[in-house]
Task: structure prediction
Amino acid sequence: MFLLTRLRNRRKQRRKSKEIIALANILLMEGDLYLDTTLKCSRVAQGIGSNRTYLWAALHTLGHGFQGYLARFRIIYFVKHARELAFLPKDEIAERCGFTHEKYLNKYLKEMFGMTLSEYLKIIRREKLPT
Result:
């Protein structure tokens, strides 16, 4: 009986985590909130009517911390706007994408695509793809 109750509670918790993440995704996408370099977990949690503990726990069910979660939005923004940003200084590119420093943009690009910012920009500049 005890194990059945625990299993039901875990299922409810997973369902609740999915709801919290879905609401956070919507909040971040509306108005490009993820581009704010000073964005804190508590501000997002407050925006979705939750608290940072629940948001943090929900993100960890996906294997992310808050910064890693935000970085995915920021990297998507970078990829989407790479051609427009390609000729700006690297630190300015990072800032426009919501990163506080170029090294964080590098870290997440390397993690997600296996290349640094310089390597990515070199490809974009060389290809001169139509906008």
About this structure: The chain has two domains: 1-63, 67-131. The chain has a mean pLDDT of 87.
